[in-house]
Amino acid sequence: MSSTSFKIKKILVLLILLAVPGTLYYLLKEKGQNRYRPLPIYGNKQVANTFHTRFGKKIPDTIYHVIRDFKSLNQNADSVKFPADSNQITVFNFFYTRCPSACTVMNREMEKVAGQYANNRLMRFISISVDPEYDNPEVLSKYSKQFTSINKKWDFVSADKDLVFSIAREDFLVDAIADTSQNHNIIHSPMLILVDPQKRIRGYYDSSRGNEQTALLIDEIKVLITEELRDVKDR
């Protein structure tokens, strides 16, 4: 082996030895972070006139669809407002106490999720009656006892009927329609709806499909909690 060839190989080995630590640091620092795919944000989106900066580039802000503020009465006749004073993640659903078995199935699935997060201060659960003229606090109190024994942060609420139907369709983007062909029948969505502290819809989960969708919701709540904790840390 010539002296020149040996020197070239020696230089290459040194370059590799110098490059490896830097590469490992980059992989561990940048690529090795706990990265995840953020949950989608549902509803119409608009480009704002304001900007934020990322990696030195100006990026237009986005105006997302959000749930309006509203007030209701829960099963204890207490006023419940959305959003709450604290920054909480909320799971919603629409139901009514005179509903056939479908609502019981839905709230049993909600119960599984609520049970997983019964002690988590970031979580709350709200079931909104689409039959508020019948579902007064006394009726809701009796009905809710079968579900809320392990989670005191689950409110069963009623509000003005026009408001309920309006927020279902326009804000939560789900069905809520009185069925005039049958007494006391209301067509409504079976979805459990995940809403972040910024009042944006982050997921729909079909309670009629059982454990598969419930397990997905439980997992995606963890993703959203991680996202919120990171946002708080970055602020």
Q: Oligomerization state of this entry?
A: single chain
Overall number of strands: 11
β content, as a range?
A: 25-35%
Helix count from the secondary structure assignment: 5
Element-level helix/strand string = HEEEEEHEHEHEEEEH
Description:
37% of the residues lie in helices and 26% in strands. The protein is α+β, with helices and mostly antiparallel strands and 235 residues long. A five-stranded mixed beta sheet has the order 7-6-5-10-11. Helix 2 (101-116) crosses helix 5. 29% of the residues are buried.
Compact summary:
With 235 residues, the chain is α+β, with helices and mostly antiparallel strands. Helices cover 37% and strands 26% of the residues. The strands form four sheets. The chain has a five-stranded mixed beta sheet with strand order 7-6-5-10-11.
List its salient traits:
235 residues; alpha+beta; 26% strand; 5-stranded mixed sheet
Task: Summarize the topology.
Elements: H1 3-31, E1 45-54, E2 57-64, E3 70-73, E4 79-82, E5 89-95, H2 101-116, E6 123-129, H3 137-144, E7 154-157, H4 161-171, E8 176-178, E9 186-188, E10 191-195, E11 201-206, H5 211-234
Helix pairs in contact: 2-5
